[in-house]
C-alpha cells in the first residue's frame, strides 16, 4: 500500500498533464470547426438543399451525441476499465475528426461528426473519472480546476489555429485532429487502471454515512445545476451576436472580440475558484456563481452599447468559469469508485445536454415574451438570481451540515 501511494505521488504531475490534455480534446472538437462554417456553406450551399439544417449540426451534433452517449460510456468504463476506453476513444477521435477532410457530402460529414461526438463522450467521461480515481481531498479539487483551465486555454489556442488554417481551405483544419495520436503512447505508458473498492475509498470525505454508497441527493442537485447552468451560460455565445446586431454592431471583428473576452473572463473565474471555495465553501460558491451569471445576463439583455455588452459578458463569464469545477467537485464527492464512471457519464451528459438545449429553451420562452429576445434573456437572468438566493438561504440556515462534508486539506 505504501509503494502504491508513493508511485502515485511521484507520477501525479505527468498524469495530471496528460489527463488535462485528453480532456481538452472535447473543446477542441467544437472550436476548430466554428471558423470554417462560412467556407463550408460556400462549398456545399449550391448542392445541398437542406444546408440550413445540416450545417449547424456539424457543430451542435457532437454535443448532442455526447449528451446521449456519455452515460453508456461511463457504464462501460466501470466494466472494462477507463485506461483502455480512453486509448481506444482517442484513436477514434483522431480518425473520425479528420474524416470530414476526405468527404464530399455534407450529410456524410454530419454523420461522421455525430460518431466523433461519441468518441468525445468517452474521452471526457474517462478523463474526469480518472481524476476522481487518482486523487483525493484537496489534491482532487486542484486537478479539477487545472482540468477546466487547461480546456479553456487550449480551446482558445486551437480556435485561432483553426481560423488561420481555414483561410485557405476548410478541409485543412480537420487534419489537426490527427495530433492526439501523439498522446496514445504516453497514455499507454503513464496512466494506470485504478483499483476498484480499494482502501483509498476510506480516504474520501464522506457525503453520507456509508462512503461506499452514492449520495443521491447531492448527485441529483449536481446534475440539475450543471444542466441549468450550461443552458444559461450558452446564451452568451449563441445569442450575443444577434443582440450586437440589434444595437448596430455588425463588425465580425468586434463580435469575435466580444466572444474572446467572454472566454477569457471564464478562465478568470476558473483561476479564482480555489480562493472563493476556501472563503464560501462549495454551496456558497454555487450562490456566487449563479448570481454572477444572472447579473451578467440581465446586463446583456439591457445593454445598448458595445462597451456595455463587453462588461456584461465579463460578469457572466466569471460565473461560468466557477461553475464546472465547483459543481463537478460536488458530484465527484458523491460517487464511490465502483459507480464513478456511470455517475461522471451522467454528469457529462447533463453538461452537454444543457449546451444543446440552451437555444431551444430561449425559443420556448419567446412566446411568453411576445417574441422579444431581450425579455427572454431577462427572464433567464431572474431564474438564475432566484437559484442564487436559494443557495444563499441554504448556506445561511443550514451552513453547519454542508461544511461537515466539505473537503479538508490533506
From TrEMBL:
<dbReference type="Pfam" id="PF07690">
    <property type="entry name" value="MFS_1"/>
</dbReference>
<feature type="transmembrane region" description="Helical">
    <location>
        <begin position="143"/>
        <end position="162"/>
    </location>
</feature>
<feature type="domain" description="Major facilitator superfamily (MFS) profile">
    <location>
        <begin position="15"/>
        <end position="406"/>
    </location>
</feature>
<feature type="transmembrane region" description="Helical">
    <location>
        <begin position="213"/>
        <end position="236"/>
    </location>
</feature>
<protein>
    <recommendedName>
        <fullName>MFS-type drug efflux transporter P55</fullName>
    </recommendedName>
</protein>
<dbReference type="InterPro" id="IPR011701">
    <property type="entry name" value="MFS"/>
</dbReference>
<feature type="transmembrane region" description="Helical">
    <location>
        <begin position="344"/>
        <end position="364"/>
    </location>
</feature>
<feature type="transmembrane region" description="Helical">
    <location>
        <begin position="16"/>
        <end position="34"/>
    </location>
</feature>
<dbReference type="GO" id="GO:0012505">
    <property type="term" value="C:endomembrane system"/>
</dbReference>
<dbReference type="InterPro" id="IPR036259">
    <property type="entry name" value="MFS_trans_sf"/>
</dbReference>
<feature type="transmembrane region" description="Helical">
    <location>
        <begin position="54"/>
        <end position="73"/>
    </location>
</feature>
<keyword id="KW-1133">Transmembrane helix</keyword>
<feature type="transmembrane region" description="Helical">
    <location>
        <begin position="85"/>
        <end position="103"/>
    </location>
</feature>
<feature type="transmembrane region" description="Helical">
    <location>
        <begin position="309"/>
        <end position="332"/>
    </location>
</feature>
<feature type="transmembrane region" description="Helical">
    <location>
        <begin position="109"/>
        <end position="131"/>
    </location>
</feature>
<keyword id="KW-0813">Transport</keyword>
<feature type="transmembrane region" description="Helical">
    <location>
        <begin position="174"/>
        <end position="192"/>
    </location>
</feature>
<feature type="transmembrane region" description="Helical">
    <location>
        <begin position="242"/>
        <end position="267"/>
    </location>
</feature>
<keyword id="KW-0812">Transmembrane</keyword>
<feature type="transmembrane region" description="Helical">
    <location>
        <begin position="279"/>
        <end position="303"/>
    </location>
</feature>
<feature type="transmembrane region" description="Helical">
    <location>
        <begin position="376"/>
        <end position="394"/>
    </location>
</feature>
<dbReference type="InterPro" id="IPR005829">
    <property type="entry name" value="Sugar_transporter_CS"/>
</dbReference>
<keyword id="KW-0472">Membrane</keyword>
<dbReference type="GO" id="GO:0005886">
    <property type="term" value="C:plasma membrane"/>
</dbReference>
<dbReference type="GO" id="GO:0022857">
    <property type="term" value="F:transmembrane transporter activity"/>
</dbReference>
<dbReference type="InterPro" id="IPR020846">
    <property type="entry name" value="MFS_dom"/>
</dbReference>
Amino acid at each position: 500500500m505504501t509503494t502504491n501511494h508513493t508511485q502515485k505521488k511521484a507520477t501525479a504531475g505527468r498524469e495530471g498533464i496528460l489527463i488535462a490534455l485528453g480532456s481538452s480534446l472535447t473543446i477542441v472538437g467544437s472550436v476548430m470547426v466554428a471558423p470554417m462554417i462560412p467556407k463550408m456553406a460556400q462549398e456545399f450551399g449550391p448542392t445541398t438543399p437542406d444546408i440550413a439544417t445540416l450545417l449547424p449540426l456539424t457543430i451542435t451534433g457532437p454535443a448532442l451525441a455526447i449528451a446521449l452517449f456519455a452515460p453508456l460510456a461511463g457504464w462501460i468504463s466501470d466494466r472494462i476499465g477507463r485506461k483502455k476506453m480512453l486509448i481506444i476513444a482517442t484513436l477514434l477521435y483522431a480518425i473520425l475528426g479528420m474524416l470530414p477532410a476526405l468527404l464530399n457530402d455534407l450529410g456524410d460529414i454530419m454523420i461522421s461528426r455525430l460518431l466523433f461526438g461519441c468518441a468525445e463522450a468517452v474521452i471526457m467521461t474517462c478523463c474526469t473519472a480518472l481524476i476522481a480515481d487518482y486523487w483525493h481531498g484537496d489534491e482532487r479539487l486542484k486537478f479539477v480546476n487545472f482540468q477546466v483551465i487547461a480546456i479553456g486555454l487550449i480551446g482558445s489556442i486551437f480556435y485561432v489555429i483553426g481560423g488561420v488554417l481555414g483561410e485557405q481551405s476548410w478541409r485543412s483544419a480537420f487534419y489537426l485532429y490527427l495530433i492526439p495520436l501523439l498522446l496514445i503512447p504516453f497514455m499507454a505508458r503513464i496512466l494506470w487502471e485504478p483499483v476498484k473498492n480499494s482502501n483509498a475509498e476510506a480516504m474520501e470525505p464522506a457525503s453520507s454515512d456509508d462512503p461506499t454508497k452514492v449520495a443521491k441527493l447531492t448527485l441529483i442537485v449536481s446534475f440539475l445545476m450543471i444542466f441549468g447552468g450550461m443552458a444559461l451560460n450558452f446564451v452568451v455565445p449563441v445569442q450575443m451576436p444577434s443582440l450586437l446586431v440589434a444595437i448596430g454592431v455588425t463588425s465580425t471583428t468586434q463580435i469575435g472580440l466580444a466572444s474572446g473576452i467572454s472566454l477569457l473572463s471564464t478562465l478568470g473565474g476558473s483561476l479564482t475558484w480555489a480562493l472563493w471555495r476556501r472563503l464560501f465553501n462549495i454551496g456558497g460558491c454555487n450562490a456566487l456563481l449563479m448570481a454572477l451569471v444572472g447579473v451578467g445576463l440581465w446586463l446583456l439583455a439591457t445593454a445598448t452599447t458595445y462597451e456595455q455588452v463587453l462588461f456584461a459578458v465579463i460578469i457572466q463569464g466569471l460565473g461560468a468559469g466557477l461553475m464546472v469545477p465547483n459543481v463537478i467537485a460536488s458530484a465527484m464527492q458523491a460517487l464511490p469508485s465502483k459507480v464513478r464512471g456511470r455517475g461522471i457519464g451522467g454528469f457529462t451528459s447533463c453538461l452537454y445536454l444543457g449546451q444543446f438545449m440552451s437555444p431551444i429553451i430561449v425559443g420556448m420562452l419567446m412566446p411568453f415574451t411576445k417574441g422579444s429576445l431581450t425579455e427572454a434573456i431577462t427572464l433567464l437572468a431572474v431564474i438564475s438570481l432566484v437559484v442564487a438566493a436559494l443557495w444563499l438561504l441554504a448556506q445561511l440556515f443550514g451552513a453547519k451540515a454542508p461544511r461537515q462534508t466539505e473537503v479538508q486539506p490533506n
